[in-house]
């Protein structure tokens, strides 16, 4: 991987992709600083200082600090992620969407279009709920109202601003995926978390200075973070390699095949998708409930408070579900077995075709169980640390998993582009080019 990164600057196409991605991320971070009209910034900052360790702090982390500033990107990319989850689930139960998915590229484009429409709808709903909730909220110190001029003018302006901001972020993510490097949506979340980490480090030292955190916990925190990062790197790069043998075949007077290779299967094939999806679902109702002052809504919100037993149980359940669901969507053992059979490949000791598919499916199931346990542990266990010593969310397992996972995935794509480019250059300058 180090060799691929070193040669990235010498490959014009890869250099353009990296530059484009960085420019798009810079545009996103600039938009985070543009506030929505009609908000008392000081009162809102005071409110978030008091609620930094609640669900608002988690939502603020995923939005890259945009919610704390109540910027035009305050909703972040979460409505798009929620819409993507809805349509991925619907493709399993709705025949029309399943047929579109099986149509290939044209069907996928249609589903993507539906997802965009759903994103706008969810953004409108969230924007309305948040604007209504903000009108009844005040700063904990001084009791200043957060909204300067409440009313429908503020609500409509907020809905329009936040929905437009989310649509623009969605477009940025799609452009980065298509014309840049890495997954654009994941990179947006990655950039938001990384951008807020320096402030989180400063706040941690301030907490030590004010006595909110004892000095002895600081080295423990660093060791704990280093251990989590090491575990994440180990599991994200670990593979189960299934040996593949290709049968020998004679074409004319030459013999082909007979070589040995392997089918690499990652322990965590779903990557950072499960915690992002699970966090998105858990934050959507809880965020709306936090702005609706109705008794039964407040009671339900309290039960779903971040770190509560019910929240932890549902969070782990959703992580496990999305680990299995996303793996099933992206990897089909039957297709892999059929492709091996068509190309003369087989697993030693296993019959080609159905038996091979069952064998691969069995291994995938076991790996997914291990991966789901690993992701759940990384995302949930640091909750104890955050609750006990008031550590910022940015040092929790979910944030570290996203940062390390997205970073590894992006570096892997850079290396793949570099290797592919070097291979193309070899073909152009070697003997193959001289054939006419």
TrEMBL record:
It is found in: Cell membrane; Membrane. GO terms for cellular component: plasma membrane. It is a multi-pass membrane protein. It comes from the Bacteria. Its main location: membrane. Keywords: Cell membrane, Membrane, Protein transport, Translocation, Transmembrane, Transmembrane helix, Transport. The chain crosses the membrane at residues 70-94, 114-132, 152-172, 184-202, 214-235, 272-292, 312-334, 363-385, 391-411. The keyword Transmembrane applies. GO terms for biological process: intracellular protein transmembrane transport; protein targeting; protein transport by the Sec complex. Component of the Sec protein translocase complex. Heterotrimer consisting of SecY, SecE and SecG subunits. The heterotrimers can form oligomers, although 1 heterotrimer is thought to be able to translocate proteins. Interacts with the ribosome. Interacts with SecDF, and other proteins may be involved. Interacts with SecA. The central subunit of the protein translocation channel SecYEG. Consists of two halves formed by TMs 1-5 and 6-10. These two domains form a lateral gate at the front which open onto the bilayer between TMs 2 and 7, and are clamped together by SecE at the back. The channel is closed by both a pore ring composed of hydrophobic SecY resides and a short helix (helix 2A) on the extracellular side of the membrane which forms a plug. The plug probably moves laterally to allow the channel to open. The ring and the pore may move independently. Belongs to the SecY/SEC61-alpha family. This is Protein translocase subunit SecY. The lineage of its organism: Bacteria, Pseudomonadati, Thermodesulfobacteriota, Desulfobulbia, Desulfobulbales.
């Amino acid at each position: 991987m180090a060799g691929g990164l070193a040669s990235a600057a010498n490959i014009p196409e890869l250099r353009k992709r990296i530059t484009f991605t960085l420019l798009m991320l810079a545009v996103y971070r600039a938009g985070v600083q543009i506030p929505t009209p009609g908000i008392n910034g000081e009162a809102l900052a005071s409110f978030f200082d008091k609620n930094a360790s609640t669900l608002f702090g988690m939502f603020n982390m995923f939005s890259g600090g945009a919610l704390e500033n109540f910027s035009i990107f305050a909703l972040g990319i979460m409505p798009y992620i929620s819409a993507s989850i809805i349509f991925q689930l619907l493709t399993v139960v709705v025949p029309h969407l399943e047929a579109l998915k099986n149509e290939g590229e044209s069907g996928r484009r249609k589903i993507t279009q539906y997802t965009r429409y759903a994103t706008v709808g969810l953004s409108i709903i969230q924007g309305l709920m948040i604007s209504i909730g903000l009108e009844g909220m005040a700063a904990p110190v001084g009791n200043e109202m957060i909204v300067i001029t409440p009313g429908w003018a503020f609500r409509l302006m907020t809905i329009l601003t936040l929905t437009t901001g989310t649509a623009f972020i969605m477009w940025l993510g799609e452009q980065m995926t298509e014309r840049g490097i890495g997954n654009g949506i994941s990179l947006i979340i990655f950039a938001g978390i990384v951008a807020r980490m320096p402030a989180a480090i400063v706040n941690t030292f301030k907490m030590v200075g004010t006595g909110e955190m004892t000095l002895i916990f600081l080295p423990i925190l660093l060791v704990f973070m280093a251990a989590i990062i090491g575990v994440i790197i180990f599991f994200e790069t670990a593979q189960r390699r299934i040996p593949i043998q290709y049968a020998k075949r004679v074409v004319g007077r030459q013999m082909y095949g007979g070589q040995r290779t392997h089918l690499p299967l990652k322990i965590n094939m779903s990557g950072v998708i499960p915690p992002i999806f699970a966090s998105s679902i858990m934050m959507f109702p809880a965020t709306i409930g936090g702005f609706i002052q109705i008794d039964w809504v407040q009671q339900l919100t309290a039960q779903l408070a971040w770190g509560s037993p019910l929240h932890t149980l549902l969070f782990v359940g959703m992580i496990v579900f999305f680990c299995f669901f996303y793996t099933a969507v992206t990897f089909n053992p039957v297709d892999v077995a059929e492709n091996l059979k068509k190309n003369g490949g087989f697993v030693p000791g296993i019959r080609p075709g159905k038996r091979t598919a069952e064998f691969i499916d069995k291994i995938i199931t076991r790996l997914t169980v291990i991966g789901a346990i690993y992701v759940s542990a990384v995302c949930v266990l640091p909750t104890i640390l955050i609750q006990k010593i008031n550590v910022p969310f940015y040092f929790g397992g979910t944030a570290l998993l996203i940062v390390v996972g997205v970073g590894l995935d992006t570096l892997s794509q850079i290396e793949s582009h570099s290797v592919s480019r070097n291979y193309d250059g070899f073909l152009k300058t070697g003997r193959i080019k001289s054939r006419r």
